[in-house]
Amino acid sequence: MVLSEKPLPAYEPELTGGYAHRLDDDEEVYSALVIGLRAYLAKNGFRSVLVGLSGGIDSSLVAAIACDALGAEHVYGVSMPSKYSSGHSRGDAAELARRTGLNYRTVSIEPMFDAYMGALGLTGLAEENLQARLRGTALMALSNQEGHLVLAPGNKSELAVGYSTLYGDAVGAFGPIKDVYKSDVFRLARWRNRAAEERGQTRRSRRTRSPSRPAPSCGRGRSTRTRCRTTRSWTASSPCTWTGTGGATRSWPRATTRSW
Q1: b/e string for 116-141 if b means 16 or more Cβ within 10 A?
Q2: I want to staple 23 with a disulfide (CB 3.0 to 4.6 A). Which of 27, 91, 112, 243 is the partner?
């Protein structure tokens, strides 16, 4: 059947060809993490996420990814200090919240910790793990009460060697950086800082201060220390030994990095 003997008039194509420039390797990985988190939340019907903010680089990167995936208004950060938490760690968590614009609150675990210690009299590793498990319980309680999805901040290096506390910092329905090695965490944080500067998204710090923890003492040579401008995390190149609260020491092998 012929509808018309006249040809159709010329029209502009709806889709035109184009060329997509290849992303930088770190930008490609970061974008994949953002898209993966956004897709998971959309498919499971969640509109907001909950992140425990320690002031460290892992939780800071997870918070930044969440803000890029959902918008800062849908990201809820919680600082859960104990009597062992330094002012530096709490200050960095608050500064991250200010710079990203996410929702932020502080819930002290000290009363809960004292109640457990009074009832059980824990010491050593059991006492250390108790703090992590109290934070995990607090996050899950807020999730149940307010309907947020809890994000786990663990990276692939920590998961590979079991460097986490079961029912503690391992809690969460989704781990945005679970397939990212610790060395890549630093690279992605540095890339996000550069991208923020290029886009004019950086905010000046309201305070200038030195870290509250002492500089690491090294067996050979001096350690180098750098600070992430967006995640507000300090990193130190080892070999080094750090002396913390109560005289506890931690050592790291040569040519590795650590954040606090």
Answers
A1: beeeeeeeeeeeebbbbbbbbebbbe
A2: 27
Residue 233 has pLDDT above 80, yes or no: no
Say if residue 30's pLDDT is above 60. yes
- Ordered alpha helix ranges (H), the chain: 25-44, 57-70, 87-100, 110-120, 124-146, 156-161, 182-199
| 243 alpha carbon, distance to own chain's centre | 25
Query: Positive or negative, the Cα torsion across 227, 104, 58, 22?
Result: negative
Strand partners, 235: 226, 259
Amino acid at position 32, single letter? A
Query: Using one digit for the tens of pLDDT, what is the confidence trace for 93-113?
Result: 999 999 999 999 999 999 999
pLDDT at 260 over 70: no
Q: Is the dihedral of CA 245, 255, 208, 26 positive or negative?
A: negative
Q: Cβ(224)–Cβ(63) under 8 Å? A: no
Cβ contact 56:260 at 8 Å: yes
DSSP lists the bridge partners of residue 257 as: 237
238, 252 contact by CB (below 8 A): yes
Report yes or no: 156 and 181 within 8 Å, Cβ to Cβ.
yes
Q: State both tokens at 13.
A: 């194509």
Would you say the pTM of this structure is higher than 0.85?
no
Separation between Cα atoms, residue 38 and residue 53, nearest integer Å: 20
